[in-house]
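Justification of resources, computational component.

The compute hours requested in this renewal are based largely on the per-chain cost of generating structure records like the one below. Each record pairs the submitted sequence with a full structure-token output. That output is archived, and it is also reused by downstream analysis tasks.
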Amino acid sequence: MTNLSEGVGYVENADKRGKKKSLKNRQKMKKSVWVEWKKSFRKNWELYLLLSPVILYFLVFHYFPLYGLQIAFKDFIATKGIVGSPWVGLKHFERFFDSYYFWRLIKNTVGIGVFTLAVSFPIPIILALMLNEVKSLRYKKFVQTVIYAPHFLSTVVVVGMLLLFLKTDGIVNQVVRLFGGTPIDFITEPGFFKSLYVFSDVWQTMGWSSIIYIAALAAVDPSQHEAAMLDGASKFQRIIHINIPAIMPTIVILFILNAGSVMAVGFEKVYLMQNELNMSSSDVISTFVYRSGILEAQYSFSAAVGLFNSLINFFMLIVVNQIAKKVNETSLW
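The structure output for this chain reads:
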């Protein structure tokens, strides 16, 4: 019996010693990490100084506001503040799911997001591949200047151009009349809204979006093309088997990022193009949040709707990233 108790005591002491040892090891690791970081900061303090405005921006405008998300689970009362307002749980989420506008908002938001992704994502890739094959440097620079310029126009200017060109007495309808057709009010017709939104977005962004692909194509080894030409490969075959595989990691990363924001349909452009007659096609989650939160002062309800939209985007990002990781072994993390 004595031997048994001594054995138990020995095991307990050994266990305590092991815990103390592991605790000391953790403390040593923490100290070593802290020392290494201090050394790195002293050595590269200029880089940390350059990075500090970016970190500050994300902290102030992206992380600190997360504190206010709790009003999505409260009945926010301005006089009581965020902390003093009563908790209501998922009341606002249930109200949104049961609302008359829920399915219309989801259909329009997903429809515009997927349509934009399907059309505006591949066009910059095709454009970059085409520009990469242009041999005349002067012509190439001219084309790049022309297609980059729309990026620097504001959304208000682009929508203003659409309204001028497509109104009933605009230039497009004047051409329609010239050929004996009946003028169409494109701006108020719900069936045209998504196409106008997406193709004007393609026109504005395709040139700027192609820059990253042009840069990736510049890194392709010319000896691969030379070897393919010796083997009798055509220009199209070299594009398919050399250029596209070379930029595929870039394509996958950008596709993941774009798919992760498929529900984040831009508020400004939709709001500027929206009117009472095309509301059935143009009303999306971001405009609904604006109406509910800013115009009707339903802060808690609008916060819940916005949080739901963000969670869907986050879920899409995770799913697409995992699929890309399994299929192509390229992912964000």
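The longest helix spans residues 2-43. Residues 2-77 form one domain.
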